[in-house]
Automatic annotation (TrEMBL):
Listed Pfam families: NOV_C
InterPro entries noted in UniProt: Auxin_embryo_med, NOV_C
Comp. bias (Basic and acidic residues): 519-529
Species annotation: Carya illinoinensis
GO biological process terms, semicolon-separated: embryo development ending in seed dormancy; leaf vascular tissue pattern formation; root development
Residue span, Protein NO VEIN C-terminal domain: 626-713
Protein name: Protein NO VEIN C-terminal domain-containing protein
Lineage of source species: Eukaryota, Viridiplantae, Streptophyta, Embryophyta, Tracheophyta
Ranges where the record places region Disordered: 456-491, 508-529
Length: 745
């Protein structure tokens, strides 16, 4: 280049020509220079100004030799991309030559630009990844040359974003890249809506996301996951109330798209949700079902006859308004009718549960009616509109159809008000525009099943003893004798009524499942007790408790009566207001800094955990008994009205066992129990520890040491802080067999 400049100063053109030097650069010279540069073994440096002039020269020459130039350029990489940005266009920068397939003009999602902003991420680290650089900021005036002349993509192809996200997840934390992922999902959503993203593309993306190694989905736990089953359930949150119930459940990961504004939240719910459904990423509400919980069985004949009477009208409505749905049901042989059952109970609740056994909510909500699978649960006081709303869920794959429910409710109201069948038929035909069924269609009806004549234990899901259940059944049986059957007298000619009357207006009883219905929060159980007792170990203790303080160890001994704690009944303990002598000492709830038992110097005196022979049943009984002892102890300190034992009726799986206080000021207590005085350690799950970290001063561990006639309770407030200060210590237990582990000496 210097020689060329010197020759320009020579005035004699003949002299330059005679020497053999060129005085004009032609296209072939530039293409040859490019070949030399990209074959060079040494690092290449150039300025953006210099390369822009070179590409401008080539672009001008393309007007006459476009095909030849494109062939020459595509014989190897020719687009210079600097590793870093310079302070000026004239600055010499190191860089690399890339092919058109490895760059694009710009990326509206910001994913590629974010790679440049990540510390310690240079282009040398990403050269083996496609589409890792944009050109719009480097060569802003050469858009036409690169896109029209060289075939560079204006934006990355939609499917290539999966590789871009893969690399982004390898060099960035999910919390830092969450919004970039959202923008990619939005890009895919637009493509799906316009048809640019084809069904084949959707299948490809779905297959990629199912791969174990392709972890490109950011979660609220700040980790990258894929849809591979090993990561558990991956879903996105469309219901904040449900999220509150399940945010601490193991094996459930919620997608995190960063802090979205109100417009972006609306886009997520409408546009992006369609894409995620196509990719197999469910919404939280889609994986949550409702599990029926109830007390006492009642006679079902009245409600069953109402449903049986309404079914032909529902059939008529579906056949007229939703003919495609009717054909679908008909092709299945109206199979749902063979299993539809109506069960009336004294008290009805539900709790939310994740399908496939991933977890259940601790809250229970009272309701008057709900459908679970093919069982329609109702209370005595449930109204017809609620029943018909739940019935519509059976016909529309779990989604209520209010139009059908309103239609059936209006007909029912007319019957109750004394309208004749002719008047109602006129209303259906002229006002509702619902014609009669074709003559060849058989009317829908409930299956013929004997009436409930005894207490069915398979339907009972409650805490009541057998005696209480029997009393409840006898009460309901007496009440049922006065129940009139549906419909009113003037309606004995209504379609389907003759069948119901012939079969006693009765339906089959079956096992309790889960469903949905009108919601009413159970005020008596704000913590939402789980109404299952299958895996509860029955325990009880004597009521005569005396609490003595032990100030030396900042723990408390619960001295029981002479009855041995091993003496356990077959019935779960339910009473908490027993007679107790209580001496309240507020210091018992906190561990003081100068506690001699918590001196960190004690830890070095032993090098192994003291363990005993494990016994699963005994461990379960010890755990239950320890929780009960801690529960009684804390009641003595805080009072019965503000203390809840969340596992009193069933093991909930929550990261705590006892809750103290009202909703705005709660203390969470995890109980650890043992019968061995030598055992100075206990297991704590990662979920419990994470909960302890989150709650801080609001979380305590109650360690219960049980013996034949006494129990000592030690309460450790904020165990995370105690571990940080050295007063408690964490231990990682290694397996005895280490064949699968690499050991470095």
């Amino acid at each position: 280049m210097l020689l060329f400049l010197l020759l320009k100063q020579v005035r004699s053109g003949n002299l330059v020509s005679n020497i053999g030097f060129k005085i004009k650069v032609i296209l072939d010279d530039v293409l040859e220079i490019l070949k030399v540069w990209r074959r060079s073994k040494t690092p290449f440096k150039a300025s953006i100004s210099q390369m822009s002039k070179l590409y401008t020269f080539i672009w001008n020459e393309m007007a006459t030799s476009k095909q030849k130039i494109k062939e020459e350029l595509h014989s190897g990489p020719f687009i210079f991309v600097p590793y870093t940005s310079g302070s000026s266009l004239e600055e010499m920068l190191p860089g690399i030559f890339l092919s058109p397939e490895e760059v694009c003009w710009h990326d509206s999602t910001g994913s590629l630009d974010q790679m440049k902003e990540i510390p310690h991420c240079s282009l040398t680290e990403v050269t083996h990844h496609p589409l890792n650089k944009t050109l719009s900021s480097t060569y802003p005036g050469l858009r036409d040359f690169f896109i029209d002349g060289c075939g560079v993509h204006e934006t990355p192809p939609l499917c290539s974003y999966i590789q871009i996200l893969m690399h982004l997840s390898a060099i960035s934390l999910p919390s830092l890249s969450a919004n970039a992922v959202f923008q990619v999902f939005l890009k895919w959503s637009d493509g799906l809506q316009t048809g640019i993203l084809t069904p084949e593309d959707v299948i490809y993306l779905k297959e990629c996301l199912l791969k174990l190694e392709l972890t490109v989905l950011p979660t609220e736990q700040d980790k990258w996951v894929s849809l591979h089953p090993s990561f558990g359930l991956v879903c996105w949150c469309d219901d904040s109330k449900l999220w509150e119930q399940f945010k601490n459940v193991d094996n459930i990961d919620f997608l995190y798209f960063g802090k979205l504004n109100e417009v972006e939240k609306q886009i997520l719910q409408t546009k992006v949700s369609v894409l995620m459904q196509a990719l197999g990423i469910p919404a939280l509400s889609e994986v949550v079902s409702r599990e029926a919980i109830y007390y006492g069985l009642a006679d079902s004949s009245f409600k069953a006859s109402l449903v049986g009477w309404a079914l032909p009208y529902a059939q008529r409505y579906i056949c007229s308004v939703h003919p495609d749905k009717y054909i679908q049901l008909k092709q299945s042989g109206f199979n749902f009718l063979n299993h539809l059952q109506v069960v009336v109970v004294e008290k009805l609740y539900y709790r939310n549960a994740i399908k496939s056994g991933f977890g259940t909510s601790k809250k229970r909500i009272e309701c008057g009616c709900l459908l679970q699978d093919n069982i329609l649960y109702a209370t005595r006081d449930s109204d017809s509109h609620a029943i018909f709303t739940e019935l519509s869920c059976l016909l529309f794959n779990g989604t209520p159809d209010l139009h059908l429910a309103n239609f059936l409710h209006m007909i029912t109201t007319m019957a109750e008000s004394g309208s004749t069948e002719e008047q109602t038929e006129f209303f259906i035909l002229n006002s509702q525009k619902v014609p009669k069924l074709p003559d060849e269609e058989s009317l829908w009806c409930l299956s013929s099943v004997p009436s409930l004549t005894k207490n069915d234990d398979s339907l009972q899901t409650s805490f009541d003893s057998e005696k209480m259940e029997e009393q409840s059944y006898q009460r309901s049986k007496r009440k049922a004798e006065n129940n009139p059957n549906w419909p009113p007298v003037d309606w004995k000619t209504a379609p389907g009524f003759s069948y119901a009357r012939a079969n006693g207006f009765r339906t089959q009883a079956t096992s309790a499942q889960h469903g949905c219905g009108p919601q009413k929060k159970d005020e008596d159980d704000s913590e939402g007790r789980v109404m299952r007792t299958d895996n509860v170990v029955p325990i009880s203790i004597d009521d005569d408790w005396i609490i003595e303080d032990d100030s030396a160890t900042a723990s408390t001994a619960l001295v029981l009566s002479d009855n041995n704690l091993e003496d356990q009944s077959d019935q779960a303990y339910n009473q908490t207001d027993s007679g107790m002598e209580v001496e309240f000492d507020p210091t018992d709830f906190d561990i003081t800094a100068d506690d001699p038992e918590l001196d960190s110097s004690n830890f070095h005196k032993r090098d192994q955990l003291r363990t005993g022979t494990p016994n699963a049943m005994q461990a379960a009984r010890t755990g239950r008994l320890g929780e009960l002892v801690a529960f009684k102890y804390i009641i003595g300190k805080a009072g019965n009205t503000v203390v809840k034992w969340v596992n009193e009726d069933s093991e909930t799986g929550l990261p705590y066992d006892i809750v103290v206080g009202e909703e705005n000021c709660r203390e969470y207590i995890e109980v650890k129990a043992t019968k061995s005085r030598k055992k100075d350690w206990f297991n704590i799950s990662t979920r419990e520890w994470q909960f302890a970290v989150d709650k801080g001063e609001s979380f305590s561990i109650a360690h219960v040491l049980l013996s034949n006639n006494a129990a000592r309770v030690s309460v450790y407030k904020n165990p995370v802080k105690l571990c940080q200060s050295g007063k408690l210590q964490l231990v990682v237990m290694m397996p005895r067999q280490q064949k699968d582990f690499s050991i470095v000496s």
